[in-house]
Amino acid sequence: MYLHIEDWFPVILSLRVAILVVIMVAALGLPLSRFMARHDFYGKDVLEAFITLPLVLPPSVIGYGLLVLIGKNGVIGKYLDTLGINLIFTWYAIIMAAAVVAFPLFYQTAKAAFNSVDPNYEKAARTLGANELRVFFTITLPLAWHGVTAGLVLAFARALGEFGATLMVAGNIPGQTQTIPVAIYYAVDRGDDVTARTLVLIITLFSFAVIWGVNRWRKNIE
Amino acid sequence: MLEAHIQRALWHFDLDLQLHNGNQIVVLWGPSGCGKTTTLNILAGLLAPEQGSITLHERVLFSSSSHINIPARHRHIGYLLQDYALFPHKTVMQNVRYGIRSKSSDRSISPPAPRQLLKEFGIQHLADRYPGQLSGGEKQRVALARALITNPKLLLLDEPFSALDYENKVRLRQELKHIHNEWRIPMVMVTHDQEDASYLGDVIMKLEMGRIVDRVYRETAGPPENIADAGRNFVVGVEY
């Protein structure tokens, strides 16, 4: 059982996508979840339901939604088209699909983690002269770290495993948009058992290693 | 010198009170839910009143009429929160040092050396421990050291003895009195315990439903001989 050089492409692409998505989701999700955990405002429930929606919608609905947005004749897509930018069937579309489905998982977990931090620690830090940024990075984030890392792992796993929406917006172009899940699907479809089995083994071992490693690391910092 | 007049609508009633503190220990005494902690939060800058003004040593910290609201981090007010809120992921030394580098706006007074301060509070042997490994009395000393290292111009204390057993409470009450004499910082302390109020308070303000219903002034300076005598050293002030 072995893979040709070009057969490694889905593995590298999937990892690149998952890592980038985790960075994007964290950059956007950390401030948003922290804000939502500490503030109440009119329409918050509606906004939260909207953020969480991709978690419960079928992946085909996400894919369709993205096509409506960034397709050649889509709401945003037609403007991008006049600028000569096309996102559909590129790896940018894979990133978008994976980010949309991974975001609510991270958001929910991080928000729960921030909610569990006693606001009195933050108050104490403020009276000791800390500005909001310092309060966040020295008090809130370290105390919520456990939940935040759990959210990062979940987002990573979800991005790595994204299939339905990815297929709809990025298709299956070997060497360009073929991720591990898509490659497995088409390998099975054409009866290429060796490739399918190898990719299944790789993604299973890798996912196992990530979860095991993070759990061990979290145990150590406790 | 603290001058404050604050008004704020709370859940069931309106908070409306006036405070004056020269260099004394002012005690806000009253049942739970009467607006004591809210008052401290407002003084500290963690909560804004709707109306009023707060002045500390001639510096305006809050004024609704001239739209001034200095944030908590620039108020130079030490605040001992209920249960002390020691950062659980930081050691005693890290907790105590937390306030040092933040106070960039006031370089004229150098902060006390952390080691020296820990020694003064008798907690130097705990420097590398985490708050979870401390007793109630030790926690309170660490919290006091953490608040005092920033050279605060006012010290707020929210039920500072509620988590302590009687013996510790009596000892730490004396220490607090000592700190007040040594550091010359005006203090505003909140308590529901009459004994704490009469032992420590130079002025005791009785708070009910957000209003001061009674003010009691200590007649003689200095702590009373014993707690039983405390009541006799007070005269009843004017109805407010």
Provide the CATH superfamily of the domain at 5-22 and 58-104 and 144-221 in chain A.
MetI-like
Low-confidence stretches of chain A: none
Under the CATH scheme, the architecture of the domain at 5-22 and 58-104 and 144-221 in chain A is Orthogonal Bundle
Helix-strand makeup class of chain B: alpha/beta
**H-E order of chain A:** HHHHHHHHHH
Reading side by side through the largest sheet of chain B, how are the strands ordered?
Answer: 7-8-9-3-10-11-12
- Describe the sheet with the most strands of chain A: none
Overall geometry of chain A comes to: globular
Greatest interface and its participating residue counts: A-B, 17 and 27 residues
Helix content of chain A: over 70%
H/E element sequence of chain B: EEEHEEEEHHHEHEHEEHE
CATH topology of the domain at 5-22 and 58-104 and 144-221 in chain A: MetI-like fold
- End-to-end CA span of chain B: 21 Å
Largest sheet of chain B: 7 strands, mixed
Query: Oligomeric status of the shown chains?
Result: heterodimer
Number of distinct helices of chain B: 7
Topology record:
The complex is a heterodimer of chains A (222) and B (240).
Chain A lengths: L8 H30 L5 H13 L2 H12 L6 H6 L8 H25 L3 H9 L4 H30 L2 H7 L9 H10 L3 H29 L1
Helix pairs in contact in A: 1-5, 1-7, 1-9, 2-5, 3-5, 3-8, 5-7, 5-8, 6-7, 7-10, 9-10
Chain B lengths: L1 E8 L4 E8 L3 E5 L6 H9 L6 E6 L2 E5 L4 E2 L7 E4 L11 H6 L16 H7 L15 H13 L5 E5 L7 H18 L3 E5 L2 H7 L2 E6 L2 E8 L8 H4 L3 E3 L4
Parallel strand pairs in B: 3-9, 3-10, 7-8, 8-9
Antiparallel strand pairs in B: 1-2, 1-4, 4-5, 5-6, 10-11, 11-12
Structure overview:
The complex is a heterodimer of chains A (222) and B (240). Chain A is mostly helical. Chain A has a domain at 5-22 and 58-104 and 144-221: Orthogonal Bundle (MetI-like fold). Helix content of chain A is 77%, strand content 0%. Chain B is of the alpha/beta class. Among the domains of chain B are: 1-18 and 45-75, no CATH class; 78-152, no CATH class. Chain B contains seven helices and twelve strands. Chain B has a seven-stranded mixed beta sheet with strand order 7-8-9-3-10-11-12, sandwiched between helices. The longest helix of chain B has 18 residues, at 166-183. Chain B is globular, with a radius of gyration of 18 Å. Classes of the chains: A mainly alpha (222), B alpha/beta (240). The interface between A and B is medium-sized, with 17 and 27 residues.
